[in-house]
Amino acid sequence: MIRVALDVMGSDHGPEATVGGAATISRSPSAPQLVLVGDEGAIRAVLASREHDPSKVRVVHASEVCRMDDKPKEALDARPDASVLVAARLVRSGEADVLVSAGNTGAVTLACARTFERLPGVGRAALGAVVPTERRRGEKRDPFSLLLDAGLTLDVSADDLVAFALMGSAYAQRISKNPRPRVALLSIGSEASKGTAAIVEAHARLSRSTQIDFIGNIEGMDIPRGTADVVVTGGFTGNIVLKMLEGISETVMRLARAAGEASVRYKAGLALLAPAIQRVREVTDWEQYGGVPILGFDRLCIKAHGRSTERAIANALKVATITARTDLITAMRNALANA
Q: Where are the beta strands (DSSP E) in 47-96?
């Protein structure tokens, strides 16, 4: 059985959301073994109020917490018993197969870096992001692309971009059940000569690869269209793109609400568009994706959003279970070795 170590103290909503999500998942026949790491008293108090399967839940006490506003290095240096570190150690020791945390992104990444090893051929880790798209892909008909990197590695080399492409392809194969994801580099033009020196070199190397379906460069407008299933870029650009897309989605929804409030005619028009608007809400609902991967280490980590609700945590645990069951680490290790 897959074992998932959940850092229950990291979320903005605290153990109520994280333990609540775990309790929900525990009742599923296909649920993994859940190792809940954090303040034991707080964890058991939430469990006592939620229906759950006790046989699927184990509690490991951690006496310290890394908060959202903490500086990661200072916090982890000062708190060796922080829940995210304790959970990471359980994964390293083999007591769990994958780490899930909704905590401080920098602290989660640093905890992984201090506890796990990098995969051979990986210089820098990458944080994934889920981007809603017009196109659907894979057996699951997923309406999103994977964006790598979303903010961990700001200054990337060609080696980093190639590694991101290989790892991202392996991840998309397993999560979307897409046997051959289309991988692209994000650049300022589709031509092979466009972009930074790192992008140009990575393009040349990926074009020679037979391991992945590399379709070349794409531009920003191609991301929401779903031209590529895996979009590879540096963390500086990736984070800007991600925040811009999130802002556009929120702005569109606010404008629609404002229009409905301003005019009866607009309200009638919006009523006719209600099914389409609902579809947009569903596609842009980040909670359904649960969490995103931190790739590059020899152990698995799924990072959930800090604002995760019980539903989002439950879905993050599902994603974590899939990555472990499909042996993502071996797939990435093989892809990097063959490169």
A: 57-61
CB 149 within 8 A of CB 315: no
pLDDT at 144 (0 to 100)? 85
Using only C-alpha atoms, the chain has a radius of gyration, in whole angstroms, of 20
Q: List Cβ neighbours of 100 (8 Å cut-off, separation of 6 or more).
A: 4, 5, 6, 7, 291, 301, 302, 304, 313, 316, 317, 320
pLDDT digits (tens, 9 = 90+) for 249-284: 667 667 666 766 667 666 666 666 566 555 555 555
Q: Tell me how far apart the alpha carbons of residues 95 and 155 are, in angstroms, rounded to a whole number.
A: 35
Walk across the sheet containing 57-61 and list its strands: 57-61, 33-38, 3-7, 98-101, 300-304, 291-295, 126-137, 142-148, 230-232, 182-186, 213-218
> What residues form DSSP beta bridges with 7?
37, 101
228 alpha-carbon distance from chain centroid: 17
CB 185 within 8 A of CB 206: yes
On whether the CB atoms of residues 171 and 146 are closer than 8 A, the answer is yes
pLDDT band at 118 (very low <50, low <70, confident <90, very high): very high
pLDDT at res. 265: 64
Phi and psi torsions of 334, nearest 5°: -65, -40
Judge contact between 56 and 30, C-beta under 8 A: no
Contacts of 133 (CB under 8 A, 6+ apart): 143, 144, 145, 223, 224, 225, 226
CB 283 within 8 A of CB 143: yes
Residue 38: in which H helix or E strand, if any?
A: strand 33-38
Q: Bridge partners of 153?
A: none
Rounded to 5°, the CA angle 64-317-120 comes to 80
- Cα separation, 228 vs 246, in Å, equals 19
SS3 98: strand
Q: Provide the pLDDT confidence category of residue 306 given band limits of 50, 70 and 90.
A: confident
Hey, is 40 helix, strand or coil? helix
DSSP 11: S
Cα 73 to the chain's mean position, in Å? 22
Percent of the chain with pLDDT over 90: 73
C-alpha dihedral, 214 to 217 to 219 to 223, nearest 10°: 10
Residue at 221: amino acid letter: M
